[in-house]
Amino acid sequence: MKKLTIKLENCYGIAKLEKEFDFSDRNTKVIYAPNGCMKTSLAKTFQAVSRKRKPQDELFPDRISKSSIQYDGADIQPEQILVVDSYSDSYSSKEKMATLLVNPELKSQYQEILENIENKKNEVFKDIKRISGSSNAEKEISLIFEGKNIFEKLSSISPQINETEYNELSYKYGDVINDKVYDFLKSNSGLIEEYLDKYTELIDSSTFFKKGVFGTDNAIGVNKSLADNRFFEANHKVVLEDETIIADKDGLNELVKREKDRILSDEDLAKKFDKIDNAITKNVQLKTLKGVLESEPELISELSDLDGFKKKLWINYFGGIKESFNTLIALYAESQDTIRSIVDQANAEKTEWEKVVDLYNNRFNVPFKLEVLNQDDVILKDKVSPNIGFSYSDGRGERSIDETDVKKSLSTGEKRALYLLNVIFEIEARKKDENDCILILDDIADSFDYKNKYAIIEYLKDISEDSKFKVLLLTHNFDFYRTVASRLPSINYADCFMTIRSDAEVKLVKGQYLRNVFESWVKEIEKKERIFLASIPFARNIIEYIKGNQDSHYLKLTNLLHVKSDTKALQVSDIIETYKTIWADKEYHIPEKPVYDMILDETSRILAETSERVQLETKVILSMAIRLKAEEFMIEKIDSKEEVSLISNYQTTELMRLYKDKFSEETENIKLMEQVNLMTAENIHINAFMYEPILDLSDHYLKDLFRKVSSLN
Question: What pLDDT, on a 0 to 100 scale, did the predictor assign at position 202?
């Protein structure tokens, strides 16, 4: 079916709009909407629906808004809509760029490897959290060990971990490593050094412990290892340096205890410990540390090198889970060759992203080229945005530059072109979606130069040939409207619409004037009075181009656009005589009468019509009648044939100057005459290249202006 049905009330200024678009045969519809009609309002309505918001009337929020947008008979889903504004400086499509950089197969392989490693890492750190009591184990390890990532950091300490016998500690990591401990050590460094000097002296005198080589933790670890491996049960013995023989586990424990007691019971060391203990006692937040040091005072020596102590603690913790730790390190090592191979392949691939960039660089006129600087990360990793690099050239040189700096150097048109690149990324990414996409383009070519404007049309041609996209192209630029209609082979006249707006509703009617409007006028000029009259400004321009503005036929037609001495005397036959100098083969069937009367009669018929067609000829005739009536009024008020006769050029403007000088108090009438002078000039000097301004004016406005001017006479 492929039908888009729109029913709106009070949505961003649209009082009412009901329209059904049939995309069964062709995928693109073009809508010409003069500024203020409904173009942006319709785009905002679709934008609201795409963001799961209810459309509303922003200026009159008390009005009840209704919106029904259906596609294929069902309510349209937000993900089916893509609205592209004419320009947005902050718009970025990096998320969509990423989807175009991805090779799904490579990404799947890569993600599977990372997922296996990540799962094993999570198991290991779950155990480490239990042993250490630290919920920030990974962060702590990352800060104190070297390596590019957590796996390299762990790999670097693997030998130490495997050589370490795990010692179950009576305290947790956070008990002795925290901000309060750091603050305490900083303010009591003298006490710690004093204690450490005496402790070192006593250790050096020991025949059992050796500072920096064999401490209490080493002794406990050795004893545990010997016991676990049933060393003493096999009747083995340990002989110390002083030839002391240890025959069982208890003997070694007793020796360690006796030697520790000897050191820690030293009177000088005890005094120094008391000083530290008193300093800790003054800080109620160090109660935990106080308890730890009271049971294990030898830890004070470790606090002098806190970073070294942290490393010892983590190595000890991992020593308690060697099997799972070694499995993780082995899994990581085995995966590296595979990962390197995948990354190399990913970097070598020509992805859809590059195809978009090639398309853009070949079609659009911009002074920069683009590349992705972190392609492998974007291709393989989740939630990584592309880091875009720009190569900027000014014709004399080329250099790399970042996006912020390149934007500073671009003209407004070039910034719009860069914005369009983001739009293309967004659209190309939508091709991967399952659903059809309703693409709303709001003046996408606005302010572009012709080269880039035609490049846009070429890209629109590409989109219109893709069955996934159903395009509503909105524009206030009539030239662009005509160009798109003529250049896209997938569009015919039935796909082109023009907007008519009233206070009650907005209507979309069949598009007109897609070819040269004057071609059809010339065919009907012989028999249709309305076309006959509307052609007066056009014929006048042709004569001006051919013979100049002093030619008698030019002056004759000018006298029907301004009130001159013979304006009301000119007959239809006079105009036919002039027309035959341009269209010699015509046989006219227009009744003889004064052309001035004919203009006013035709205007009366136009005022009575309620046609919903956009008719250029009615706007031209209304403009002619408005100016004639306005000049009549001012000439009668000025009441000076001498002053009026001196006017040779710009008659309406000069009449206004005289009228304002003499009747400055008539402010409302002056405002009305200014409207006439402002709104009718281009309409009356119509030519083959500029009739868009007339189409932008509503019939309602021109009719109202004529009535106001007529009421003054």
Answer: 58
